[in-house]
Amino acid sequence: MKSIVRLFAVKKLFTDGTVLICLLTPLVFVYLYAFLPLIRKESFEIIILSLLLSTVNATFEEVLWRAVYFKIFKQQKYLGIVASSVGFAIWHYAPQVVFTNSHPGGANSFVIFAFILGLAYSFVVWKQQSIFWVTIAHILFDFGGLGARIYLG
């Protein structure tokens, strides 16, 4: 457990442009595509619950799909990046059983995007040896979709 907690160590963020690209590109996408159109019509309760939901969900996903795989594949960088990204992507089929993606491509487009996001986040974890900034980015990404509206909206 202590080794996973150590993976939350805060590392310098602005030392590598590829790290910034991997963290910021998905955020720009979700905030332009989802957040801005949704925020105007959502209640304060949905916004607060979305923040709480995204904080819990993203943190646990990062521990499961990045920290654990980082520890398991510590000596096999590329296998660790791919394995964690595939697992992360497949994991995202589960919510599609209850809340199907109505956007073009349906569940498959959602899972493909999760795979690409997983690759970017896994790369950052290997580069920084920390899940801190990836967890923050993942929380912001999930919040950008205002997920509580699915349950309460």
Summarize the model shown:
The protein has about 150 residues and is an all-alpha fold. It has helices at about 1-5, 15-40, 45-70, 75-90, 95-100, 105-130, 130-145, 150. Helix 3 runs antiparallel to helix 7 and helix 4 packs antiparallel against helix 6 (about 105-130).
Q: Can you tell me about this structure?
A:
With 153 residues, the chain is mainly α. It is 77% helix and 0% strand. It has eight helices and no strands. It has helices at 2-6, 17-39, 44-72, 77-91, 94-98, 106-128, 132-144, 148-152. The longest helix has 29 residues, at 44-72. The radius of gyration is 15 Å and the shape is globular. The N and C termini lie far apart (37 Å).
Distance separating the two termini: 37 Å
Order of helices and strands: HHHHHHHH
**What sort of overall outline do the alpha carbons produce when their principal axes are compared?**
globular
Mean pLDDT: 90
Largest sheet: none
Helix percentage:
over 70%
- Count of the separate structural domains: 1
| Strand-residue proportion | under 5%
Using DSSP, what is the number of strands?
Answer: 0
The Rg value, from CA coordinates, equals 15 Å
Low-confidence stretches: none
Structural class: mainly alpha
